[in-house]
Amino acid sequence: QLGTKYQVRVTAVSDLGDGAWSNIVSNTTFNVPNMVSLTTNQVTRTVTSNNPSLQVTWSAPSSDRPITSYKIGYRRGTSGNWMKRTSNGNTTMVAIENLQLGTMYQVRVRAVSDLGDGTWSDIVSKTAFNVPNKVSLTTNQVTRTVTFKQTITGCNLECTIK
Q1: DSSP assigned state of 16
Q2: CA distance 89 to 84
């Protein structure tokens, strides 16, 4: 069984009988990768050409065997099906693109080795960028500025009226 500690001892067997038992040796079998640590600071919001996205970065967890990939799960809101992405090899960054403006998403990551999938990271929630809110403007906040220049021989006149 993965990640289990076993104790082993050996004896020789022949037609004349069994030999003495060896000393007991303990060892733990290889295990799937440890849990990825994912924090709010590792999920950042970006937007390019009205395309909101989340940039997710993480550090490789410790693992008995080489990590072959990472699985990234994300979903809108706090319930429903998880959408999946995979990063190849040792890549510890992924961009989740084409998100809905102003929508909250949950993100999680797990490492994968040849022994199987590690535990999902803690879930991080982040809201994709939204269009700016409507600006409220009153007539008291609007000013008019008129500037004119007049050149009179030998004199420059500049006046600003507010």
Answers
A1: T
A2: 16
Q: If we measure between CA atoms, which residue out of 46, 34, 44 comes closest to residue 109?
A: 34
97 residue type, one letter: E
Cα distance between residue 52 and residue 106, in whole Å: 15
CA distance 20 to 4: 27
Among 122, 109, 3, CA closest to 63: 3
| 3-class SS of residue 123 | coil
- Which structure tokens are listed for 63? 């693992």
pLDDT in tens, 113-126: 998 999 999 999 99
CB 127 within 8 A of CB 107: no
- Tokens for 1, please give them: 């069984």
Per residue in 79-93, pLDDT (tens digit) is: 999 999 999 878 999
